[in-house]
What does this fold into?
Amino acid sequence: MSVVIFTGLSRYADPWHPVAETSAQIARVVRALGVEPDLRTDETPDALADLTGVDLLIVNSGRGNPDAPPAYDPAWQHSFDAVAAHAEAGGAVLGVHSAAAAFPDWPGWADIIGTGWTPGVSGHPEASIAVFEADPSAGDHPVFEGLAPIAGVTEDPVVVAYDERYWRMPVHEGNVPLLGHRTLGDWHVVGWSCGGSRIYDGLGHDARSYASVHRRRYLANEIRWLLRDRAALTIDEGEL
It folds into this structure.
């Protein structure tokens, strides 16, 4: 079983997202499933050029310097092509939080995770303890295994975490909504599956999000679901 965690520490680093610490938390969850992740960063353009034998690619990265986002560099094309081929072949992909804005120099990424970040439109309120609910159409989905509703408040499973509540992101046609939140009277979807082998998960701004066992459980369930055709993974509760 091979899981790659890609972290944007240089070319795709931004001033808002401490991706080194959140990738460490993601790796913790992967290890709780009995898998040692392959940790890669954007310090070399061929970081993702070889995905041979990789079962799941997790992308935890921002968009780079907001004042001067990275321009297209042909040296990165081999990595872009490899990710596209992996997804097209049915390989599992999980984009986490700021991955909605990752790879601004590669439009194909938005098609793979079924969203993007629209400057001036997409955003979020201040981070806070927040309740994210299963979309009404998705309460029985395996990603909610072990999660429960709040009695007398919700009928669908919830994830409670200190996090940002992303909103007003484009949701591509064919996405299957999984997780959302109600803010200022509107329902905003922040997690979905697309193509049956890819998930975008809008949670995970910083380590405070991963302090929530709900958030860690939800992430573990996403990984298990994405790898459902490869192995039956069980969660080591002591490590989660």
